[in-house]
Task: structure prediction
Amino acid sequence: MNPLYWLAIAAVVIVVVVAAVLVVRSRGRALPPVEERPRLTPAAPAQPAEPDEGAAPAAATAVESHTTTLDVPEAPASRLVRLRRRLAGSQNALARGLADLLSHDRIDESTWDDFEATLITSDLGVGPATELTTKLRQRLAVDGVVDPARAHEVLRQELIALVGPELDRTVHSIGAPGPDGRELPGVVLVVGVNGTGKTTTVGKLARVLVAEGKTVVLGAADTFRAAAADQLTTWGDRVGVETIRGAEGADPASVAYTAVSAGRDSGADVVLVDTAGRLHTKTGLMDELGKVKRVIEKIAPVTEVLLVLDATTGQNGLVQARTFGEVVDVTGIVLTKLDGSAKGGIVVQVQRELGVPVKLIGLGEGVDDLAPFDPAQFVDGVLGD
Ligand code: GDP
Ligand code: MG
Result:
């Protein structure tokens, strides 16, 4: 028989086998069961065993349709590996100050002064920098001799204490039962100055929530530019969730209202509302954000107000935090662009300024570049551990 004939058969067999392997592997990447995935948000309280009529079945169906199309987001642990690399960079004043301190075998007065000065330039803030220096002096410099391993451990402990390991950093996205007994969606309102990363954060957060098995609706309440709603819609499509938008120039509160009522009617678990940060006067900001929140709460309580701050803006971010803190009850901070800033100290300052914890951090522009903020891992990143 013609050898070409056999060659052709062999080629067909190889193609079939490769295709089969690819199909099996792509199945393997389907979402693992909800309970095996890392969470950014608290697990829903246990539901009664008997199925609820109404909202519950609708939500369950929607979850299934999403889980078949999405792949698994990167695990928070491996996201943090990237943070570590970046925080421990040589341009990080906090990391540099700590490394310098640890490099001395005797610490004298002027070493402590240098250390404190370096901490202040690291965006840690004057108060926390002084507190940390005082604590370390008390614990380390009893006789001026420093054991590097012990110094390292004490530093680690004191830094973690400064960041606040006891704070609740979960994103509150679980709705309560409404007046008619039906479960309302959790509502997360995302606020902040333009360009800080609000829309990107909403998109990334939606992806995480969907991966946790939740149904999500996005509300494009930044109506100043059509491009803003387009950007959010693109995220929604990418993540596989519905985006509610209004016409350019529409009342942001009315878009937010429509989004939350759509979420309630479809039995969604969470509605994420993106807002505009274009407003420069505090009165305008107060009026608009206040109205958005009030109008939403005609339907469902806002469970979380996330203030998005760009870590690269340093002190400017603090001024923004103060302004937004005065106009809305911020309940959590998202610190974005930590990948480009190396100014980790801002975490401590901004938490003190607002009295609320940093809950999430942005590590880049990609879909998986959002991580829960973990004080110990963050400190290890700064120390280069
Ligand atoms: P908004 O105006 O607050 O909605 O900001 P956007 O979400 O539109 O983001 C503004 C720019 O910052 C975009 O180019 C984003 O890709 C970028 N961005 C957002 N978050 C991060 C982050 O964590 N790291 C980096 N490097 N860029 C980010
Ligand atoms: Mg935006």
User: Anything to note?
Assistant: Confidence is low (pLDDT under 50) at residues 26-38, 44-69. Residues 192, 194-200, 277, 308, 336-337, 339-340, 362-365, 369 surround guanosine-5'-diphosphate (ligand 1) (CB under 6 Å). The first strand starts at residue 186 and ends at 191. The CA atoms of residues 217 and 241 lie 6 Å apart.
